[in-house]
Amino acid sequence: MMRTIYITFIFFFLFSCTSRKNNINVDAVDKFAAAYFPSNEPGGAILIMKHDSIIFSKGYGFADLTTHEPITPETLFNLGSLSKTFVANAILILQEQGKLSVEDSLLKYFPDFKNQSIGAKVKIKHLLTHTSGLADNRHVADDTVFYLTAKDAENWYPEMQVDSLIFEPGSRFEYSNPAFNGLALIVEKVSGMRWQRFIEENIFKPSGMKTSTITDGPHPAHGVSHGYILNHGQWQEDDYGEEPTFAAAGNGGVWSSVEELALYERALQKAIFLKAETIRDARTVKQFSNWSSNVPPFIGWSWFIQNYRGDIKNVGHPGSQGGFLTNYITLPDKGILLVILCNAPREEYEMQDFTKYILTEIEKQNWYD
Q1: Residue 254: φ, ψ to 5°
Q2: Which end of the chain is more exposed for a tag (fewer CB within 10 A), N or C?
Q3: Domains contained in the chain, number
Q4: What CATH number should be reported for the domain holding residue 222?
Q5: Domain membership flag for residue 88
């Protein structure tokens, strides 16, 4: 689901900030996107927001190749790993409520760890930052049939069976999907409700995200776009039922639209479901005292963060699952949000060329303050 993400994520943002013009011409973005997404194939939706103003929002191509339902800014896409930010925010909500702490060990919530010392050593904060040292102990390739329907608990269970850590928790980064299956289960244990419902009640509703939903087994079976991959020149569906681990929702189960992700970012900017200081902390790089990697840390509480040209932050998260691709990019200090949601991969994982073009156009037209 996530491949070499931190290197290419940083690449997206190496462009300068300039002053914004009064008149914004979106024709160039529209023309480029229309050529990128052929009208008779799977496509995508794009949104650019400046503070509270949506500058550009449009869909291209088909959400469903059977019905020829068109993609619009309201079309629901699977967000892939952008979903992790919702799970992380749920953990932070519970921490604000005094019901848990990111300093809690995993053993507190999963007392059945095979190696008890590992469960005691690894903490919630390590799962949130992909620094746990837990190897991905799932054997997906050897049992694809099982993992086609395996939910969060089944994907997290192998992590509790590890005999040793691959590095000391907090010392370096290694991306982990099962970590967020475990975090979702912690939300469930602490809140006393399905974690999907907890996010709906505490994030979706306060943010005004009325149509967004979360995978729970085969749900949602209707009302969402389908993901596709190109196989020998033919588009082939690749989502629930075709892609192993798709049912494991904690790491990639949120479905939303570009329009509702704009509401998500507004809610973060306005501290609707978390305190402002909590959000600032979540979007601050975490470096633990035993950090030993040659690569500087670049992760907050799930958010990918990079500074450039002084103290201006880039904060966001890409995603990939089955035939879906996501890119969510913000410049919080400049109030810029760029969201790209696709239901067919057309280039490398993070859509470098496509993203770079849009960001270059934003810069060329001086859309910043």
Answers
A1: -80, 140
A2: C
A3: 1
A4: 3.40.710.10
A5: yes
Dump strand ranges (E) for the chain.
Answer: 44-50, 53-60, 62-64, 69-70, 77-78, 213-214, 228-231, 234-237, 254-256, 304-308, 312-321, 324-331, 336-342
- Label residue 308 by pLDDT band (50, 70, 90): low
User: Region 252-278: what's the mean pLDDT?
Assistant: 97
In a domain, 369, yes or no: no
Print the domain residue range for 356: 5-364
Would you say residue 181 lies in a domain? Answer: yes
pLDDT digits (tens, 9 = 90+) for 210-249: 999 999 999 999 999 999 999 999 999 999 999 999 999 9
Q: Exposed/middle/buried for 79, CB within 10 Å: 0-12, 13-18, 19+? A: buried
CA distances (Å), origin 331, targets 15, 269, 274, 352: 11, 11, 19, 17
Could you read off the pLDDT of 84-141 as tens digits, one per residue?
Answer: 999 999 999 999 999 999 999 999 999 999 999 999 999 999 999 999 999 999 999 9
Q: What span, in angstroms and rounded, lies between the C-alpha atoms of 168 and 148? A: 32
The first and second tokens of residue 136, run together, are 């991905």
* Backbone phi, psi, residue 123, to 5°: -115, 165
Coil/strand/helix, residue 96: helix
Distance of alpha carbon 324 from alpha carbon 131, whole angstroms: 26
